Amino acid sequence: MARSPLTLAASVTSALPRAGVVSVAALSENAAGRYDSALATLDDGRQVVVRVPTDADADRDLRGEARALQALTAGVRAVLPLAAPVILGDTVLDARPVVVHSWLPGYRVDAGHVPPGPGVATELAAAIAAVHALPTSVVRDGGLPALDAAQVRAEAERLLDRAEATGALPFGLLRRWSAAVAADELWRFETTVVLGGVDPASFLFEDDADDVPRITGLLQWGGLSVGDPAVDLRWLASAPDARTDVLDAYAVSSPRAVDGALSERARLHAELEFASWLVHGHAAGSESVVADAVALLEALDESVRDAPPLAQDSVTVDDAFAAIGRVPQAAAVDTSMQTDTYDADALSEYTADDTGSSAPSEDETAPLELSDWVRPEPAGDATAAHADDDDPEAAARNALRRWTETA
Question: Where is the Aminoglycoside phosphotransferase domain (predicted)?
Fold first, then answer.
């Protein structure tokens, strides 16, 4: 049973002994009911978010999110061009951790609604590049995961082996992914600080004086680690119109050498979300999850059957210099699609013909559910809607949305 806002308000005063709560309201999240959340206003005028996990998996993820945010020292935050939530206090409620953090205003844009051209697309690229430019000591000093390129490749190979062992992986995908894993040129890259598969809807936007969207904050930090920068661009599979602009702006914004296979690995990471869902279903012994994963894999196999191999057409340094000329310094953009938070709820819509619109949901929204366009929520709810890429169900749904849109 969901905890009431009043119960959560009491947790705020427990976590922040000197604070008084003058008002509290339930806060819907894109978290599939995995958290009970509320937005509380304190007697000093501050607004804070209180979150309590509802199950063991959410408990683990919330603790990971807190560790990542604590790794963002004042010095690190000072060099970032965006804000991150600040952990203000914590306590325990019903044997579950309670985290109270600062509230960040802004609206969000789902990957499927990222328009081409300057604005949202280029802002996302620059923000992701800024995180990737952080020194890896930020992660290592915080005791967070760190992988080198060989380890990233080995993880992909292990996932493929586990998916093949289920006996349910279509041969076409096995061949396609095996060729990608075996292609040495695909795995020659420099690891960076990454967000572990961030999605555009984790970023917060506000319009400047010229009505141009500017990123002001980032909500999802739980995947903070050292790894493959391509994983944070896998969402481009669901934003084909903005893909070139994002990659061009990323190349211009990144202080590191151009990674010629970045876009190919990003696509591979997106496709492998299907394999993760299949492996999860088998590990959990869930026949329904396995059946769902098999259907998704078969649809993906059909959609990429005539697609070129993943390991080809690498970008050169000359390509990167050419990209600089394609990124304008400033331009007005159409913000008509950039209202507030978007939410996803109906997987079936993207297994058919992309017709119809999603119906309003009264439940707490799920983090970037992979199945549907998402619809605006009140701007005040934006900051608590944390995308959860560690959630296998969310990853599978996201993968479906990506590949049905680009098939």
Answer: 38-249
Report if pTM > 0.70. yes
Q: In degrees, to the nearest 5, what angle opens at C-alpha 105 toward C-alphas 104 and 108? A: 105
| Structural domain includes residue 52 | yes
Residue 25 lies in a domain: yes
Q: What is the mean pLDDT of each run of 10 residues along the chain (407 residues)?
A: 88 94 85 84 96 92 95 97 97 94 96 96 98 97 97 98 97 97 96 96 96 96 98 96 96 89 96 96 94 96 88 53 52 39 39 43 42 40 43 57 47
In a domain, 198, yes or no: no
Residues 29 and 385 sit within 8 Å (Cβ to Cβ) = yes
Sequential DSSP letters for 217-283: EE---TT-EEE-GGGGGGGGGG-TTTHHHHHHHHHHH-SSPP-TTHHHHHHHHHHHHHHHHHHHHHH
Question: For 50, phi and psi rounded to 5 degrees?
Answer: -115, 135
Distance (Å, whole) CA 293 – CA 282: 10
CA separation for the pair 219, 196 (Å, rounded): 13
CATH number at 85 reads: 3.30.200.20
In the chain, the number of structural domains is 1
Nearest to 168 by CA among 292, 38, 322, 318: 292
Residue 167: left if φ>0, alpha if ψ -120 to 50, beta else—which one? left
**Looking at residue 159, what is its pLDDT?**
98
